[in-house]
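Annex B. Sample input.
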Amino acid sequence: MSLPDLLQRSIVWLAWGGLGFGVLTVVAFLAGWGLRFRLVGVTSFTLLLAVSCWAFSVSYTPPVRVEGAVRVPVVFDNGDDLVVAQAPATMPIEAIEPTLAQLAANLRSNGRSSQSVVIRLRQLQAAGEGSSTPVLLGKVVVE
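Annex B, continued. Sample output.
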């Protein structure tokens, strides 16, 4: 099940659950049950979860997939103008450009103070016994 489908289902279930707890809370107050104040908390929290799931589903954008790209982890992001990703040792050379394009498409520039962001793709290559050297495979500037 995809994340947007899961969110839509969760919203419905949480909203109905919150309404059910609300009705139960009203009954608890009318009957004078001892757990009526606990039900207020459960009802509020359930409705809060429903609203939070709705807000997340509105703001969610799925990641972009580029044909031929390799999924690489981001190992450094200064939050401003530089992002560095780590390529695996077995990465083919023809996958460098699609991987950089995928990284650039998935870059979230919200909150960055600079106008352009440099994305570097590096690979660690053995330099001797117990040491390695980072080798720059490519870079792209996102405006």
